[in-house]
Amino acid sequence: MLSRPSVATYVRFAVTALAVTGLLAAAPATANSTPRAAAEPTSAAVGVKMPTAVADRLGTERGALVDAVSADVLSRSHDARGLAPDAAVGRLAEEGRKVVVDVRTVSGDWARGVAYVEASRARHGEPEGWLYIAHREDGRWVAGLEGDGEFADHVARSPLVGAAERRTMTAYAERRTTPDAHAPHTSHASHASHASQAPQVGVLANTNGMLLPWMPDYYMTLTGGPHSHDGGSGYWSALDFAGGNASGLVRSSREGTATSMCGAGGGWTRVIHPGGFSTDYYHMRNTTYYNGTAIGRSALLGSIGTDTCAGGSATGAHVHWSLRTYDANYVGQYTWLNGRTIGGWTWWNGSSQYSGCGTRLGVTACPGTAIYNRTG
């Protein structure tokens, strides 16, 4: 695991204008300025952070790198889709949201980090975020966001990706899935009907023994059945859990490569697993800092909480757990839970978001039910 960076080591940028040649023009904080706290916004629309050593290595290339990553983020963001970059950041600013670009590591012509679009704090929802790797080619930065072709290419070639991580991430990037095996909003009213479909679904829905986000053979309470990651449109990919006898400790659903999406102290972690899936864990507290770190199954990530480091809202301590994979065009997205088995429970959509249930050995568990995490 990499060392945990101190807030004081970060150089913060104040966004001054949209550049003619890129998304933004950014100026480094002056030498006499006081470092801001990690949660303090650096601008109304775009925030950039990076360790001082990384900023020094990039020099005058900092703005061009941020331009490249930010442009890709806005092209992939659901809330910015179809808008020009300046219009997109303007809309986000009106809602008190911003794009955040975190440049964590630089080596030669390569850079790596995390970028995300904050969720609205005025309504329930979760952020959109990506790992990225960027390469400087012929004098310009080419950014690859998790899920696109450039990302897969960069993972294969970048010295910033270790051999073990490359094996996991490349397999993930090359994964093809069929997310339309079920319509995303199927009712769970007839479990008998679901049972008759289970053998066919099982072939497509295999999650390779993935667990629920706590220690096996302990229980938590299901507080929200399948719902979309952001509480709006999209596949119903998320579950909410709280309480139980697992001491509130949140653990990885399987082995893989973990990244703290908000940085040190933030409550959002993503784990990329072998076999084409990744999982997100949001609202945690007391988190362990990971930065492309190899972890085992049931590795400690943090504790249930109400953290909103990247926007959104949380009522009561819980973990918001989401399943991700790639579609047929290699675009990373939150994917369907309906008919998939996680932690020994097969999950079914309800007639509305959050109302769906899990089934196991003839038992149906709906929101409000304590369920054990099972390995088989």
UniProtKB/TrEMBL annotation:
Q: Write down the Gene3D superfamilies for this protein, in alphabetical order.
A: Glucose Permease (Domain IIA) (2.70.70.10)
Alphabetical keyword list: Signal
Which residues, by range, are in coiled-coil regions? none
What SUPFAM superfamilies does this protein's entry cite? Duplicated hybrid motif
Which CDD domains does this UniProt record tie to the protein? Answer: M23_peptidase
Entry keyword Signal:
yes
Q: Which InterPro entries match?
A: Dup_hybrid_motif
Q: Which residues lie within the region annotated Disordered? A: 176-199
UniProt feature, compositional bias: Low complexity: 184-199
May I ask which residue range the UniProt record assigns to the signal sequence? 1-31
- From the Swiss-Prot or TrEMBL record, give the protein name: M23 family peptidase
Q: Which organism is it from?
A: Streptomyces genisteinicus
Organism lineage reads as: Bacteria, Bacillati, Actinomycetota, Actinomycetes, Kitasatosporales
